[in-house]
Structures are given as structure tokens and as C-alpha cells.
Design goal:
about 350 residues, alpha/beta, Ubiquitin-like (UB roll), Elongation Factor Tu (Ef-tu), domain 3, Rossmann fold, 3 domains, 6-stranded antiparallel β-sheet, 7 helices, about 20% helix, globular, FNR_nucleotide-bd, iron
């Protein structure tokens, strides 16, 4: 690269290209064979809007579709922006928070084993105030010196209780040590709502949801909201598990599919027994077996980081657009902390 050329890294697509100071970032991407989202190409529609995670750009004239406060927050339009430094850009579209996160005291309403290593934890807030959130968001359970643990909510806004579906992690301080000791009436401090994951109603595209394990929890909340709408797009939910016993919401989704003709439920087992007549293997492979071209779909992925990384690569290779691909990756809980002073 010359001194007037800069490297541009597109985070979601895991690709990079070189842009000169005399061309727009969109022009440089196309020259390199990289397809960034774009439509009008004169700065009027905002389709090519990205977040500048790193670096600076400038414009010959301020683009119409980029408000000054958006530019101040680090957003840029690639059809008009020219690089001034190396750039790292993100096309992820994060939804605005419906309410600010705050700390609240919650009371355990009940705990229930859903399957061998998954527990349903239902909480109510002591102050009785409504809990405003968006399906797909999560909350943190606050554990003092042990830090916090994050769990997606499977509930709907307006519900009087908050439901968490928690998988036990080997050595997990909360999931393996504390969760089993909780009883009705016990108190927990929580913080929420948190996170930008959720349903992008403005897309209005056929939807494919893919989850592994308890990654189905936030998707269940989103799905309920989508199916309750008068004019919802068709939705296919693919849920990956090891064995049939791990499909702890199987009956629920089967009943939803029976009631809604535009909803399809596909359970996928990686360790299926001989009697299993459904899909086998990895959930992303089951999606591609049914959808060889994903160019018209919006995709929502939730579950293990490995599944999401593999699914993202496979779906993009089969026509999916990064603009319409949303992911929420679950990571393991922290191990039990060592005693103070050790």
C-alpha cells in the first residue's frame, strides 16, 4: 500500500480490502470484489450506513442520509466516505434500547427442570413496576464479588414475570452452584434490559431462525411477538440439540406450527437415536438442505459461538446478505471464583 492507501476491514464478513484516499470506500470495495450493502449511491438512502469501529473518513459534501449526531456517534455512509486512515467497519444493525438498563431487586417465583441440564427460572420484580424490554434482550444476574451472569429472556413485554432458561455449565458458579439452591421467595439483584439483539420488523423478509441449546430462549420470545402481528412474514425455526430429550420446548413449537400456517418448526439432532425420523446433524446444514439460496431471507442466529461462526460462513456463501444476518452468541459462564486472598 502507498501512503495514500488504507486497509479497510469489514468485521462481519471477515474480509478486508484496500481503499485509496481518492475513491469512496464503496468504490474500493467493488474494485476488490467485496459486496457492501448499497442502493442509491449518492448518500440519500442510508443503505450503505456502517459503524466506524476504528478509523476516520471524510466527505466532499455532508451526505443527506447521515445526520450530524449519527456522524458524531461514529456512523458513516460508504458511498460517499473516503478513508483518511485504516478502517474497521461494522454493518451490524443494533436496535435502539426501548428502556434504559437499571438495577432492580427480583424475587424467585419458581424453578423448574426443563431437561437434564436446563432449568427454567421465573422472577418477579419487587417494586411491581412494568419491565419494559424488547424480545431478544437479556439481563444480568448480579452476584456481588463473583461478578454477573447474562441470560436472555424468553418472556414477552407485558408479562408479569420474567422467564430465563438456564443451561448448567460444568464448574459454573451460578449455574451449577447457586441455581440449585434457589427457592420460591429468594431474592436476586438483576440489571436490565441489555443488548441490541431483536426482531427487525422493517426488513419484512422471510425469516430463518437457527438456534442451538438455550439459544432458542430469546428466539422464542421474538417468535411470539412476530406471530402475534397481523401481517407477519413466514418464519422457519431450526433448533439444534444433541438428543430428543434436550428439545425441552418441542411440544410448544409443534403446537405453534399447527396453529400458524406461516410458521415451520424443524428440530435437528446431532446425536439422534435410531427411532428419530427428523433432521440429523448440524443445525446450519439442515437450514441449507431446505434453503439453497438465502438471498431473500433475514436470518437470526443464537447459540454457541462455534455454530454461529460456521453458520455465518455457510449462509453468506449461499447468498445471505450480511445486512440481514443477526446473531447473538452465548458464551460459557465464569467458573466459581477463588476465595479472597488466593
Amino acid at each position: 500500500m502507498t501512503s495514500t492507501s488504507f486497509r479497510v476491514t469489514w468485521i462481519e464478513a471477515q474480509s478486508n480490502f484496500v481503499a485509496s484516499a481518492t475513491e469512496t470506500v464503496l468504490e474500493a470495495a467493488r474494485r476488490a470484489g467485496v459486496t457492501l450493502p448499497a442502493e442509491c449511491e449518492f448518500g440519500g438512502c442510508g443503505t450503505c450506513r456502517v459503524k466506524l469501529v476504528q478509523g476516520r473518513v471524510h466527505y466532499d459534501e455532508p451526505p443527506l442520509a447521515l445526520a450530524p449526531d449519527e456522524a458524531a456517534q461514529g456512523y458513516a455512509l460508504m458511498c460517499q466516505a473516503r478513508a483518511q486512515t485504516d478502517l474497521a467497519i461494522s454493518t451490524e444493525r443494533v436496535l435502539d434500547a426501548p428502556a434504559p438498563a437499571r438495577r432492580r431487586r427480583a424475587t424467585v417465583v419458581r424453578t423448574q427442570k426443563l431437561c437434564g441440564d436446563v432449568t427454567r427460572l421465573v422472577l418477579a420484580f419487587d417494586d411491581g413496576a412494568p419491565f419494559v424490554f424488547r424480545p431478544g434482550q437479556y439481563l444480568n444476574v448480579l452476584l456481588g464479588e463473583a461478578g454477573s451472569r447474562s441470560f436472555s429472556m424468553a418472556s414477552q413485554p407485558g408479562d408479569t414475570h420474567i422467564e430465563l432458561q438456564i443451561r448448567e455449565i460444568e464448574g459454573g458458579y451460578f449455574t451449577q452452584t447457586l441455581l440449585g439452591t434457589l427457592h420460591e421467595g429468594d431474592a436476586l439483584d438483576v440489571e436490565g434490559p441489555l443488548g441490541g439483539f431483536g426482531y427487525h420488523e422493517e426488513d419484512y423478509r422471510p425469516i430463518v431462525m437457527a438456534a442451538t441449546g438455550t439459544g432458542v430462549a430469546p428466539l422464542a420470545g421474538m417468535l411470539a411477538a412476530i406471530l402475534a402481528a397481523d401481517d407477519a412474514p413466514p418464519v422457519d425455526l431450526y433448533w439444534g440439540a444433541r438428543t430428543q430429550a434436550d428439545l425441552y420446548l418441542h411440544e410448544h413449537f409443534s403446537q405453534l406450527a399447527a396453529r400458524h400456517e406461516d410458521f415451520r418448526y424443524v428440530p435437528v439432532l446431532s446425536r439422534a437415536g435410531e427411532a428419530w425420523a427428523g433432521a440429523r446433524g448440524y443445525v446450519q446444514d439442515a437450514v441449507l438442505a431446505d434453503h439453497t439460496d438465502l438471498s431473500e431471507h433475514a436470518l437470526y442466529l443464537c447459540g454457541s459461538p462455534g455454530m454461529i461462526a460456521d453458520a455465518r460462513r455457510a449462509f453468506l456463501a449461499n447468498g445471505a446478505s450480511v445486512r440481514y444476518l443477526y446473531a447473538d452468541s452465548f458464551t460459557f459462564q465464569h467458573p466459581q471464583p477463588a476465595p479472597a486472598g488466593i
